[in-house]
Amino acid sequence: MTDLLFIVFAGLALLCGFLTVANPFTRSPVASALFLVLTMVWLSGLFVLLHAFFIAAVQILVYAGAVMVLFLFVIMMLDLREEERRQWNRFGVAAGLIAVAGLLGITVLTVVRSGISGETEATLEGTTPLLGTALFTQYLLPFEIVSVVLLVAMVGVILLSKRELK
Predict the structure, then answer these.
(1) Which run of H or of E encompasses 154?
(2) Tens-place pLDDT, residues 1-31
(3) How do residues 31-75 score in pLDDT, each as one tens digit?
(4) 136/2 Cα distance (integer angstroms)
């Protein structure tokens, strides 16, 4: 049953993540933000399957709650309507593809160098003080990287949502 739930949650998270970025039905930024909320909900379901209930709750409260309210506030503050089709910016598309390829390469290189095999089983269970200690000692750099990624996402929402001057 756990394997089936993993497949369902992971598939729905990937589908909603795709619809966040490239929604073929609508170009509304509000719809993209709501698909991002759904992606975060499915990711919290994956954390529940790993018995990481605290991380699942934080995923819902912090990311699906506070961060998405901030994104929706920025979108609503800019008073956006359904965007008309814009011309493709070749430099932007090329830079985006290079960035995605770089991130994919870094991820593959990290996994290969980590020495993780399929037989190891990670335990995420523990108390909140142990999680906080591990987060701010052993995993401080990834924690700070996530905060920078969130900042870049906020700037991206503003840049993608602004109107072009005529």
Answers:
(1) helix 140-161
(2) 888 999 999 999 999 988 888 877 777 777 8
(3) 888 888 899 999 999 999 988 888 888 888 887 787 777 777 777
(4) 31
As given in the structure block, the two tokens for residue 116 are 């993780």
Return the C-alpha torsion angle 37, 39, 40, 41, nearest 10: 90
2-161 CATH: 1.20.120.1200
Which one, of 12, 1, 15, lies nearest residue 49 by Cα?
Answer: 1
Q: How many residues does the chain have?
A: 166
Give how far the C-alpha of residue 11 lies from the chain's centroid of Cα atoms, to the nearest Å: 15
Residue 75: which of 154, 164, 165 has the closest Cα? 154
